[in-house]
Amino acid sequence: MTAPFGTRLRQAMDTRGPLCVGIDPHAALLAAWGLGDDVAGLERFARTVVEALAGEVAVLKPQSAFFERFGSRGIAVLEQAVAEARSAGALVLMDAKRGDIGSTMAAYADAFLAPTSPLFSDAVTVSPYLGFGSLRPAFDAARASGAGVFALALTSNPEGHEVQHARGADGLTVAQSVLRHLAAENADADPLGSFGAVVGATLGSIDADLDINGPLLAPGIGAQGATPADIPKLFGPAADNVLPSVSRDILKLGPSVGALREGAARFVDETRTAIG
């Protein structure tokens, strides 16, 4: 039985540094690398990122949509990238943001969290906006396989405010309700729970209790405007559990393997200095 995701993530962050790098092969980035917007370009991009970073950083986060747009051949590239990244020692967080009910949610859980699946990942992102309870198949599958789940809580896109800051009959915001559910899922976990929240690093301020005993995935570092220095100010006592997510500011340094590694190392150093 593999160690729980939270245990493995804590070890990876402590040894390799607190950094998650996205694998986001959108068309403009493929062009910037001198690659075609086709399956061959997709494969070259993904394999280069994995070669450069899977042995260096704690977490790689492929964005499923950028592979899905090429159909079955794109999914085949994604399967290959996941397997090679995990084999090289990186934890793989599948950025799929799935959310549904009943047997459909169970099928998504099978796709990303069942060890027999070719897309099996160390963790997956999910959307809780059909009700947190609708995600139960994902949590159950993750517990069974030693994987993790990251639920959207406080995203930095302006459209998210109308849902995430709405208040229920108990007076809690939707985001705070999600965070409380995650804290319950992580109860008694040590050294870190396996069930995390996605909390944007560009929010400026957070009026919520982030003490969930689990990881906080923080997108928005780099090109979107946030810096490692913002982490302790924004996340406060929870800063040690923050996993900064950087994509464009590192990926733009490719296709040079050396430049990608140097960029990742710089972000790790800056984050460690900021958090202390």
TrEMBL record:
CDD domains registered for this protein in UniProt: OMP_decarboxylase_like
Listed pathway(s): Pyrimidine metabolism; UMP biosynthesis via de novo pathway; UMP from orotate: step 2/2
Enzyme class: lyase
Protein's UniProt keywords contain tRNA-binding: no
Active-site annotation: 97
E.C. number(s) listed in UniProt: 4.1.1.23
UniProt keyword list: Acyltransferase, Decarboxylase, Lyase, Pyrimidine biosynthesis, Transferase
Reactions the enzyme catalyzes: orotidine 5'-phosphate + H(+) = UMP + CO2
Domain of life: Bacteria
PANTHER family xrefs: OROTIDINE 5'-PHOSPHATE DECARBOXYLASE (PTHR43375:SF1)
Listed name of the protein: Orotidine 5'-phosphate decarboxylase
Taxonomic source organism: Streptacidiphilus alkalitolerans
Gene name linked to the record: pyrF
